[in-house]
Design brief:
Layout: E1 8-13, H1 17-23, E2 30-34, H2 44-57, E3 64-68, H3 77-87, E4 91-94, H4 102-110, E5 115-120, H5 123-127, H6 129-138, E6 141-146, H7 148-155, H8 167-179, E7 183-186, H9 195-208, E8 212-215, H10 221-227, H11 232-246, E9 255-258, E10 261-264, H12 265-280
Parallel strand pairs: 1-2, 1-8, 2-3, 3-4, 4-5, 5-6, 6-7, 7-8
Antiparallel strand pairs: 9-10
Helix pairs in contact: 2-3, 11-12
Bound molecules: ligand LIB3CWND and magnesium ion.
């Protein structure tokens, strides 16, 4: 089993050159060059050119290079998509997905090159997420990204560390992603100085089943990487489950006891995933 880690995805405005340079060396699994909400309207055209130049220049190493475009119904969206389809980042992230047919339209505009990712950040999307997800998967969309700031604005809900009003939609995002074989990333944590709050929210996201977290500052990367990586204890447990099922005395058994716990074949599958994720995260930073 091979796994592509997505523990940490760092956003930055595409037109901030010093941040683009830092992102090329940052300890993250994905870099998201933003053309949407982090870029002022008067800077949109220059930011698009900067994103295309950054993609063409490369230098992001193992990091998945993503560009977040403006929505197709804005004055910048169509030209963003055309420019990105032409230069080929690893993925294009589209904002504010609302309707079941949208992913197919984006895919058509984008062609078969880059992966298609989409933000879940509108109330209307959550009223019809199963229909959206079925059609998104058919359009080969690979990844959902939570947009909790936009969602908070639309819901008129308070976005604090505990995120109580958002628990149902966070779970819905994970369930839909898993049902259709997509990756799913948790939303950003705005308080850059609050490391404890970020760690709490990362742990919650990992416990809910998210693959990783979107982040807004390099200071946040280590906390997310740690929270979404298997711990040493989890790796040991996974190894002992794999060893136990491989032991001759357990050949052909569907359920055994490992470390005092009932352990079934489904737990072996989970253990294999843990070990694959662990192996995939043991690379040297480059
Ligand atoms: C939030 C920031 C504007 C803060 O910037 P600043 O005050 O300049 O921070 P620092 O002084 O701490 O910066 C120190 C150096 O670090 C680099 N830096 C900062 N942030 C990043 C980053 N994200 N990636 C890479 N490098 C970064 C700076 O370049 C400084 O270097 P130097 O200039 O050489 O001194 C800023 O952090 C920022 O812009 N963050 C990203 C904001 C963003 O992209 N927002 C859009 C995505 S969030 C969102 O919209 C989610 C979703 O849609 C929703 O609805 O929830
Ligand atoms: Mg948003």
């Amino acid at each position: 089993m091979t796994i592509r880690p997505l523990r940490s995805a760092l956003y930055l405005p595409a037109n901030r050159a010093s941040a683009v340079e830092k992102a090329r060396r940052a300890d993250c699994d994905a870099v998201i060059l933003d053309l949407e909400d982090a870029v002022a309207p008067e800077a949109k055209v220059d930011a698009r050119a900067a994103a295309v130049a950054a993609v063409n220049e490369g230098g992001f190493g193992h990091r998945i290079l993503v560009v977040r475009v403006n929505a197709l119904d804005t004055e910048w969206g169509p030209a963003d998509i055309t420019a990105l389809a032409g230069c080929g980042p690893d993925a294009v992230l589209v904002p504010k997905l609302c309707h079941p047919d949208e992913a197919g339209i984006y895919r058509q505009q984008l062609g078969t090159g880059p992966e298609l990712w989409a933000m879940l950040e509108t109330c209307i999307a959550f009223t019809q997420l199963s229909a959206i997800s079925a059609k998104a998967a058919a359009a080969e969309l690979t990844t959902y990204v939570m947009g909790t700031n936009d969602l908070a604005l639309e819901m008129r809900a308070k976005l604090d560390t505990a995120r109580a009003p958002f628990q149902p939609v966070l779970a819905q995002a994970v369930i839909n992603a898993r049902a259709y074989g997509l990756s799913v990333l948790d939303g950003v944590f705005n308080d850059i100085g609050d490391e404890e709050g970020l760690a709490t929210q990362c742990r919650e996201g990992a416990d809910m089943g998210f693959d990783g977290k979107t982040l807004i500052h390099p200071k946040q990367l280590a906390i997310a990487n740690a929270a979404f990586s298997p711990s040493a204890a989890e790796v040991r447990t996974a190894q002992s489950i794999r060893d136990a099922f491989a032991a001759p005395e357990n050949a052909g058994k569907g359920v055994i006891k490992v470390g005092g716990r009932m352990t079934e074949i489904l737990h072996l599958r989970e253990a294999e995933r843990t070990l694959a994720l662990h192996a995939a995260t043991q690379r040297n930073p480059s």
